[in-house]
Specification:
It contains five helices and ten strands, in the order E-E-E-H-E-E-E-E-E-E-H-H-E-H-H. The strands form three sheets. Strands 7-6-5-4-10 form a five-stranded antiparallel β-sheet. The longest helix is centred in the middle third of the chain and has 31 residues. Helix 3 runs antiparallel to helix 4. The protein is an alpha+beta fold and 265 residues long.
């Protein structure tokens, strides 16, 4: 009985069984009939994915740069507050703060407050104890809000985690040649951008809480360049995630408007 069956292999590499019928004809039953073919990423789509990934990588780089610096906000005393030839300016970020002593002669005569912090001077930096002993930091007799600072730091770390997950999904999509991982990557990058922007908002609320804790020393405050990096990073991450979302659709809007012939056909 088994001699009437022939094992054949088709062009796609799937194995089928062919049996002999009563009239001498052959009835074929392919073993891969119930299998679903996986869609592959075309060359044009791969180029668009790499372009969107490049935009997202710029956002990731700006996020890491902003998170690692302590120039999120500058707090400056009045230039002549101490009544001598020096004045002090403080700047801090998510992890540590610095107090910088500047010479009044180096400051712009039209500027009423001390600073900017980039001027040469003596610097004393310390890491915050939010994450170790849970103590609040005191800057110019003003006390930080531990809960808000911790929330901003945790959101920034969560955003970095989502960026790593999105990058892994894109790397797997490009290496395997399948678009399945593009949609999870778009979700990760969009969520990471939203978390970055939320971290900036909560950090700003912590600065407002710090300034309202004591009014004995007047301070001039302004958000510094690290916040600009983080804000730009959040926008780029959301934009990159939207690009990945468009690429994960069954058809791309621009391909529907401008169809082109695939190079493989």
């Amino acid at each position: 009985m088994w001699s009437n069956f022939i094992v054949q292999q088709d062009e796609d590499g799937r194995i089928g069984v062919v049996g002999a019928g009563q009239g001498g004809g052959l009835g074929g039953v392919k073993g891969g009939r119930g299998q679903r073919r996986s869609h592959k990423i075309s060359d044009s789509q791969e180029g668009k994915i790499k372009l969107a990934f490049f935009v997202s990588i710029i956002g990731v780089t700006l996020t890491v740069l902003g998170m690692g610096t302590e120039f999120w906000v500058e707090l400056a005393q009045p230039k002549n507050f101490s009544g001598n030839q020096t004045c002090q300016v403080a700047h801090y970020g998510l992890w540590k703060g610095c107090i910088r002593t500047l010479w009044v002669a180096d400051i712009d005569p039209e500027r009423t407050s001390c600073g900017p912090a980039e001027l040469p001077g003596e610097t004393n930096c310390t890491y915050f104890k939010f994450f170790t002993s849970g103590e609040n930091a005191v800057i110019f007799k003003k006390t930080t809000n531990k809960k808000l600072n911790l929330a901003a730091s945790i959101l920034a770390l969560l955003s970095l985690t989502m960026m790593v997950m999105g990058s892994i999904c894109i790397a797997m999509a490009l290496s395997k040649g399948v678009p399945f991982f593009i949609k999870p990557a778009s979700f990760c990058f969009i969520l990471s951008g939203v978390l970055v922007l939320l971290s900036i908002l909560i950090f700003h609320q912590s600065v407002v809480s710090l300034l309202s804790s004591d009014h004995s020393i007047p301070l001039h405050h302004e958000l510094s360049w690290s916040v600009t990096c983080m804000g730009s990073a959040g926008g780029l991450l959301i934009f990159g995630g939207i690009l990945f979302m468009i690429l994960s659709l069954p058809f791309s809007p621009w391909e529907k408007c401008f169809p082109h012939k695939d190079s493989t056909t």
